[in-house]
Amino acid sequence: MTADDGRRRDDAAAPGHDVPTGSDGGQPSPAGGGSVQPVLADEGTTSVPEPEPRPKADATAEVAVINKPTAIGFVAPALGLIGVFMMFPAVWALYLGLTNYRVTGTAAREPEFVGTDNFTRALEDPLFTSSLWITLIFMAFSGVVGQMGLGFTLAWLFRRWRGWTRRTIEVLVIMSWIIPGSVVAFLWRAFLDGEGGTLNSLIPGDVTTEWLLRQPLLAIIVFNIWRGTAFAMLLFDAALNTLPPSHLETAKVSGASTWQTLRDIVFPAVRGHMLTTALLVSMWTFNLFTPFLLTGGGPNYQTEVLAIYVYRVGFGQGDFGFGSAVSAVMLVINLIIALVYFRVLRDRRKKS
Amino acid sequence: MKTYLRGSRFAAAIFASVLVLAACGGDDSDPSDDDGAAQEAPEPSDDPVHLTISHNAVRPDVVAVWIEDYVIPEFEAAMAAEGREVTVEHIEGGVDDYKTQLALDLSVGEGPDITSFDQFWTAEFAAGGLIEPLETVVGDIVNDWEGWDQIPEAVSGSLAVDGQQYGIPLGTDGRVLFFRTDLFEQAGLPTDWQPTSWDEILDAARTIQSELPDVIPMQLNAGVNMEEATTLQGFIPILLGAGGDLYADGSWQGDTPQLRETLEFYSTVFDEGLADSDMQLVTDGRDRSFEAFADGNLAIMIESDYLWRGVINPDGGFPIDGREDLVGWALIPAQQPGAGINGQDFVSASGGTGRVINPNTEHPLEAWELLSFMGSYEAQLDWVEREPRITAREDVNEVGIAEDPMQSFVAEEVLPLTWYRPGFEEYPQVSEAIQRMVENVIAGRSDVDSAAQEFHSNLEGIVGADNVSGE
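^ Those are the sequences you sent over. The predicted structure of the assembly is below.
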């Protein structure tokens, strides 16, 4: 199968290849021609019974026929579930964070309201500040730089590959993503073990480095890159498929280098996908608990990311009040991350 | 958290952290408050009764085997002989945070009818209203049990708060110095070793270090990952040997000279490489120490007699063939003769376990009958025949450990000079602060000064500044 062959097939299949998160990703018209989005929007409103409706266009049409009480009636069950299973626990955790509630002892029976004591205690705890720092490093290097960088590189390098080679690579990468975390942790501990570990046997000479003790942060960063690259790769793969092939060919014909092509054509086109991916990966990594399975947060707190910190104070020390307070701080940081990304995303849309 | 579907990761990411804690925040009402009827002597149930018992262990753990092969069939048969249909189920365990799980179960009115229990949890669970005195759960009939006469008060008190008995103790233990006689012989050290000061411990370890460079000279538990083992068979015997205590004269002991002596000892041991600091920091460090000792790569350990009866025994996780010849034991000396707590030459520390009845049980009478059956002479004898150890019952001990030299040593030499943990609900938090303190010292995060000061302020945070003495 030639490269051209594959690309044409891919174009035909593109409308089915939906990006899981992107309502912003414009899909190429079969002709692969010029200004994509306006054309499609027009089509959506004029041609009525198409099996694949454009969400935006239909929304305006429906608001006109449904009155407000009916609409509320439709969303009420969903809102109710969200309220019970998401909002209530969140508010409850905020409340617990203001008490000295413990899992055992007098404070379990009669928790007292302690105001912001838990929050000041967290900010004064050097282990909390170092844990926050570790979490941000972990997020930046394993999530944003590692998973996204490697994910994009893989998606770009293999974008024209088809057939069994591509399948093999996809299976290998996705395998690391779908194996249960506990199994993966066991494999990595065996891989990094000092005596008889796979990594040490691959290195020439008599190496007995205990990687999880000597380079713990690096170890969990590499681990997480390995673990999560598949997700970024899949998203970027879908994003690259939305690129009109003619753009790339024009670039090729006019003699643009790979870097120029990436900078001037690919990155601007998939920037929305990148920001969405960055948002998902950052928040996922920020809240990740899996390093616990490798290091337990150690040695001596060196890999204690915030999720592990909360686990240690909440479940290890039984201090649910304090643990809830730190969880609330994590929630706020998550919201800040989300707001930053949404702001950037909106600015980008305004510009375009 | 890792079980969330990727598709919902956006929402999950926001709420995962709070969900976990909030979901467990749970019900803080006390389910047994309205259970006043329990004071009357309960009647045997006419309907079939199903009881659950949990021990946080699986086969081949000897207690799990004993419960499944002896306790359940014998008890069910005894009940059947009375014409009562009682079935018992063993809920297998083997998890790290058993204590938290149990507390959460009990707080929402769930959990097994009978559960094994560590002595030092009693005060905090009782204060939290998670367990109730046996008299409240079952009734006055618990005082008629024949076994109480066989259990010394010091031992039964381990499961009592304010004079009220919460469960039946199983037994007790003691901390000693274990050493490999084969390694001592190779290094030219006496195989009937009994050090009389800290310096003699250090000298023996240094001799091992120079004579047998491939062998880790000693193990002194010092990591947070080793949890209570770091407190009870690491820090405490050293602190007691310096003449210190955890709680004395009505207050908790913070940054005292004895605390600093203790931390200096840790510092010396690890700075000189007499113990392996990696072993303290890894997540499975205690198992690694057992393995090294069993393989002859570690010469000296401060451990509970559990090492002897539950680790290096023929059925244990790290058996040593011929442990009687290859393993020696000695009392833990004070810093100098007479410098230990109460002017002692040697020190030790003891813990213990027991079983309690869930206050939420639907069948308090049957649960008590099962619990007291497990504590009966016949049942306890069957248990120690599987694993010789010091039980709570003196009549069982007379025959149960007679032929085990190590256990007899603990009963005769160690228990008379031992120390028990203070029975306050804050103890487990203090213990955790201790583990962090010693780990910080041996990992180089803190020096002795700052570690002692930090511990002092942590202690004040836990029990209140008025209840701490020291610097």
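The mean pLDDT of chain B is 87. The first strand of chain B starts at residue 49 and ends at 54.

Shout if you want it in another format.
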